[in-house]
Amino acid sequence: MKRIITTAAALLMGSNLAFAGEAIEGNWKTASGETAVIGPCGGAFCVTLKTGKHAGKQIGKLSGKGNSYSGEITDPANDKTYSGSGTVSGNSLNMKGCVLKVLCKSQTWTRL
């Protein structure tokens, strides 16, 4: 009986940990088919490519909570950095990068 209670407590504690993170955290499939990981770093959330030509490269840093985040996004192909934002809706992440907040480009990423 004691073993069952211990196992149940461990499962409950583990499930609480799964829900402790922000909505943006996790692995995402980018619009170009690469995998990116978003995780906490220095009070914000860093976006780092895991696969593809630019694997290992940090391409963004966003701050926020809930479903809305903002910060900077870098295009890994040309190393240009833009004002960026991300909005999470279910298993989708709408990433947007803008120049002067007027010229914007968006992509939708899917949670893996």
Pattern of helices and strands: HEEEEEEEE
- The overall average pLDDT, rounded, is 85
What Rg is obtained from the alpha carbons, in whole angstroms? 17 Å
> Strand share of the residues?
over 45%
Q: Strand arrangement, largest sheet?
A: 1-2-3-4-5-6-7-8
Reported for the largest beta sheet, the result is: 8 strands, antiparallel, barrel
Count of DSSP helices?
1
The rounded distance between the terminal residues' Cα atoms is: 37 Å
Tell me, briefly, the overall form. Answer: globular
Count of extended strands: 8
Please identify the structural class as seen in this structure.
alpha+beta
- Helix proportion range: 10-25%
Low-confidence sequence ranges: 1-20
Short précis:
The chain has 1 helix and 8 strands.
